[in-house]
Amino acid sequence: MEKVDDIYPKTKSADYLFDALEKRLGPPQNYDEASNLVLQLGSNDPSRLQSCVQHAVQSYNFKEINLNCGCPAIDSGGATSYGASLMKDPHLTGSLVESVRKGLDAGIGNTRAGVDHPKVSVKCRIGVFDNAEDMRPLEDSDYHYLKNYISTINDAGANHVILHARPAILSGLSPVKNRMVPALDYEFVEKIASDFEGKVDVTLNGGITSLSQLQSLQEDCTSTISSYMAGRWCLRRPLDLIGVEGLLKGEKLDSSLIRDAIEHYVDDSVKMGSVPSHKQRFTTAELCLPLFLIVEQLKDDYEYEEEDRERPLLSYDEIESLYEVVQDGVAQMEALTNSGKKKKKNMSNSSDINFKRLSSSFKSLVGTKVANKWKRNRAEL
After folding, report:
1. CA torsion angle 159 162 167 170 (round to 10)
2. What is the pTM of this model?
3. Which residues pair with 27 in a beta bridge?
4. In the chain, where are the structural domains located?
5. Which CATH number does 2-230 carry?
6. Residue 281 φ then ψ, to 5°
């Protein structure tokens, strides 16, 4: 998600926008017309949003432009000029959606003959309350408000809605607690999907935390929900993404795919971290964070006890077979960051499985403060 004010301030030219997008996304040539690249934008300024979209799509092949109408908790570092506060103003939201559509038409026009324009979508909550004290179970009146809200944005040009199945609390509840405290209500999402069937694709978001849960939702033959979104789950357990891919393809999980994915990620990280510092797109911490999350997931699953939760993605034998792979990856990152410094003891000489020690090794890579923050943040996902 990008705030328009950050990537395209009023005082800057389109060149500033191009540089900001390339810094975040890499070169435009990395994305062909079949790419699944989605740009989520946050704004309450229709004119500036239209200009931003118009220039952005001239360089990048976006599959979809998404308007953020779901980020909560204004007073706790959340959205101040976008996000869930827009749900209180259907007319303004409709104007923003219309400005995205106009930006697409102006930016693409007829320059891509035979290629579909990017879709326009909105991500929002199923309801919104001003304060934590106002929070209550949702009622029929809340549903009718949501239905009218989606009708408004659909009339303005949005044909896809991602519904986080919780209401948003704008004040008195942190963004983290906004993902946990308000009650999930999948029934609201189901009813919207049914009422807008054939007009709006509805994606359910919120509370999906495992492969078995995703599979159960997908197998509901009575549902008219188009698709499902999970964010925090895949941040906390990134290796589960391979399980999701297998589920979508109807294929059995092959642990060698995970081994290959980790090795490829480490190779790419070392290459990106080896370029001159003034040309680097990513810091050492940014390159190491995915590897840290992988180590933490394997550590959790290795310590798994049956009464804790559902069975892990991998067996003990498969996890042990991956230990050396991730250990070697950490060692390569250490060699990269310690170039020119006193050589450290190579962890690969140790044959025992010790994920706790491996996790602690990130402190030497990014610093104790950063590594501890990663642990705290992961616990909140």
Report:
1. -90
2. 0.88
3. none
4. 2-230, 255-379
5. 3.20.20.70
6. -95, -25
